[in-house]
């Protein structure tokens, strides 16, 4: 089945207010939905992936205004909407970096709290709590897994997705330009290793001293980059074959030869 994809590579910089950015993102979703069945946003786009004080200040519950606006946008446009991630505050006052995925009826079909937090005992790790549960759900793309940014460096998570028969991994990210070559390599590696589609949506712009690297991309199950963005704001489009992972696995059944299996919270 052919599925149209749109990755919204958003510029997130300190000169724009959060309210203005929210409205601009809603407009960009409307634009992308004219051509796409699935629309994906980047990590912590409402505050910026590296603006941790803003993440703490503007954290909301899963029932808050931001998630409600994303739900309404999915319904309005009749799309599958991966609304990137947002700063989620729980009733216990814990904060998580949480991704949400809606179907065209506005049903929240998956929620993923980022497991691997970046910062080496500062930054993100000071603000957020670690998630503990893997998210794999059925979508128009087949079984679809959710990951966020730094998760990309941990292949055992992606292998756990494969054990749950994921055919596609959607990654919301705020990956900096200084390490963008690693991003490019790791996206292809995870696609090849697990024979999955990888839909990776990054940010651009400057947050404090951090420059975000862009290079949002759509990678097929044999590691070919179907489309890749540059380092400026854009909406990246592609039409993909949702059945391709099954075909690739049948033709080259490497996953059947796995002999070492790790353990990860499910």
What is the total number of structural domains? 1
- Please trace the helix and strand order, writing H or E for each element: EHEHHEEEHEEHEHEEEEEEH
Q: Which homologous superfamily in CATH is the superfamily?
A: Carbon-nitrogen hydrolase
Largest sheet: 6 strands, mixed
Look at the helices and sheets and give the structural class. Answer: alpha/beta
Shape, principal axes of CA atoms: globular
- Unreliable stretches covering 5 or more consecutive residues: none
How far is the N terminus from the C terminus? 29 Å
CATH topology: Nitrilase/N-carbamoyl-D-aminoacid amidohydrolase
Q: Helix share of residues?
A: 25-40%
The residue-averaged pLDDT reads 96
Description of the structure:
It is a single chain. With 266 residues, the chain is an alpha/beta fold. The chain has a single domain (2-257), classed as Carbon-nitrogen hydrolase (Nitrilase/N-carbamoyl-D-aminoacid amidohydrolase, 4-Layer Sandwich), CATH 3.60.110. The protein is built from seven helices and 14 strands. It has helices at residues 18-33, 52-57, 65-77, 124-127, 155-163, 180-194, 244-251, and strands at 2-9, 38-40, 80-89, 95-102, 108-113, 136-139, 142-148, 168-172, 197-201, 204-207, 210-213, 217-219, 225-228, 234-241. The strands form three sheets. Strands 5-4-3-2-1-14 form a six-stranded mixed β-sheet, with helices on one face. Helix 1 (18-33) runs parallel beside helix 3. The longest helix has 16 residues, at 18-33. The model has no long low-confidence stretch (mean pLDDT 96).
């Amino acid at each position: 089945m052919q599925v149209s994809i749109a990755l919204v590579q958003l510029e997130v910089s300190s000169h724009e207010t959060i309210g203005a950015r929210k409205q601009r993102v809603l407009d960009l979703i409307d634009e992308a939905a004219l051509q796409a069945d699935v629309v994906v946003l980047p990590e912590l786009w409402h505050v910026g992936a590296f603006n941790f004080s803003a993440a703490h200040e503007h954290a909301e519950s899963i029932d808050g205004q931001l998630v409600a606006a994303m739900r309404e946008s999915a319904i309005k446009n009749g799309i599958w909407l991966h609304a990137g991630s947002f700063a989620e505050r729980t009733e216990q006052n814990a904060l998580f970096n949480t991704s949400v995925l809606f179907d065209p009826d506005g049903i929240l079909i998956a929620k993923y709290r980022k497991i691997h937090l970046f910062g080496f005992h500062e930054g993100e790790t000071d603000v957020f709590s670690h998630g503990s549960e893997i998210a794999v759900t059925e979508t128009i793309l087949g079984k679809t897994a959710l990951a966020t940014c730094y998760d990309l460096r941990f292949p055992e998570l992606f292998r756990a997705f494969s054990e749950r028969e994921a055919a596609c991994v959607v990654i919301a990210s705020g990956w900096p330009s200084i390490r963008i070559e690693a991003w490019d390599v790791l996206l292809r590696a995870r696609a090849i290793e697990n024979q999955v589609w990888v839909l990776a949506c990054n940010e651009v712009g400057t947050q404090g001293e951090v420059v975000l690297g862009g290079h949002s991309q759509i990678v097929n199950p044999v590691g070919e980059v179907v489309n890749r963005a540059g380092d400026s704001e854009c909406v990246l489009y592609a039409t993909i074959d949702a059945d391709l992972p099954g075909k690739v696995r049948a033709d080259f059944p490497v996953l059947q030869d796995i002999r070492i299996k790790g353990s990860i919270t499910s």
